[in-house]
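Hi both,

Apologies for the delay on this - the queue was longer than expected. I finally got the pyridoxal-5'-phosphate-bound model through. Below you'll find the protein sequence and the ligand SMILES exactly as submitted, and right after that the structure tokens for the full complex including the ligand.
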Amino acid sequence: MLSEDQFKRNLCEVQNEVGEFCSQFDRSPDEVVLLPVTKKWPVDAVRFCKDAGIGKVGENRVQDALAKQSEVPDVEWELIGHLQSNKVNQVIGKFERIQTVDSIKLLQKIQASAERRELRQKILIQVNSGEDPAKFGLLIDEAEDFLERALGCSHLITEGLMTIAPYAPDDSSVARRAFFKLRELRDRLKEAFQVDLDELSMGMSGDLGEAIEAGSTMIRVGTALFGQRDG
Ligand SMILES: *Cc1c(COP(=O)(O)O)cnc(C)c1O
């Protein structure tokens, strides 16, 4: 794993890059939150973030995240990986937000578990706006009915949408198209339901410029901060 000094240099570079994209696309850097993705890295990755004043991280796998949570207190955790419904009970109350809600079954389980624990769980709806067969998420056409169900859940707070662009390192138009589709969907749903749906979690190390261009409010960055992961 990289040294803390190297991490700080990477962080600085990413922040500069974000700043440049923001000025290029007429966004304020305050509107684009950086969520470091510490998946597959030791718990020190989380400590580095905390030391640098970043109080939240993203993790993919429930078990890995829970293990790290017990070692580093006072950090907000966002679940960004696919959630199996049999793990819902382990997750509720442990993650500030679940970004990957994409089935009615999951919605119902999260609602039931949050209700039992008398808390309100924040969620994002994952949409496969790039129609990538290898990705989870609702289809664009399913999102309206789904949002209606989510808004009817007393113990959920639906804050916005999340997507992962199809992997296409040589063609940035693929990610751009997926991100603009998510943005348009969000604008349409916001108008139709008259709700806050402000969070647009989109953009990773390889496509954060396209995401910022399309209106991302949260970029999830692993590799650019911590280096290449094994496997
Ligand atoms: C791993 C992961 C990221 C970070 O990807 P990088 O390319 O390493 O920046 C972001 N979002 C999700 C959902 C991920 O699984």
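Main takeaway for now: The pocket of pyridoxal-5'-phosphate is lined by residues 37, 39, 60, 80-81, 164, 204-206, 220-224 (CB under 6 Å).

I'll put the files on the shared drive as well.

H.
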